[in-house]
Amino acid sequence: ISKSLQAPMTLECNFTMINKTLYQCEANITTNQASDYIEKVTGEHIEGLSNKDVTVLRLENSEMSNIPNNISDFLPSVDTLLINNDNLKKILTYNLAQFKNLKRLQMRVYSITKLDAYLFEQNQDVLDFEFVTSTDDYERLQSIHPQLIAYLPKIQQLKFRMGRVDEHWNSQQNTLLELINLWDIVASTYPYY
User: Fold this and answer.
1) d(CA 136, CA 172)
2) What is the pTM of this model?
3) Which DSSP string corresponds to 54-92?
4) Which end of the chain is more exposed for a tag (fewer CB within 10 A), N or C?
């Protein structure tokens, strides 16, 4: 579908400061149907700050079925992406590639059953990746391709967990896999790696 045929999509931001240093857009995406592009970003900025200052993007929208491909055109400095969504069916390499500074990705997505092996091919500076999947057997993450980790040479924390849609970001989930300081462990185990 061409851009002109898709419904306009707006990223509505609630701009806030986190710990006096991180400028965040807590966003809702408004549209009547799925679109691959956003038309504009709205919201009231903190005095003296603009879209270029946003480093944390929190996408909280259960209606979003895909991640728009041009968010970075409006928010070019995002290095932390937090996604909480129970309708997102897939996330692909090109969805993340737009975030050139991405260091941290935290996803609570309950309908993704498979992660693309090349998800981080264009984002090899990611330090922290957390993925929370459904506790439902039919919607739970079914497989993690080993190649996924190969594209994370700087990763410090890698977590896969099970949770429920209604759980808060900071609640405890069942840990499926947690690797902290992964490359330090590899280097100490295999000194010639």
Assistant:
1) 17
2) 0.81
3) --EEEEE-TT--S--TTHHHH-TT--EEEEEESS-----
4) C
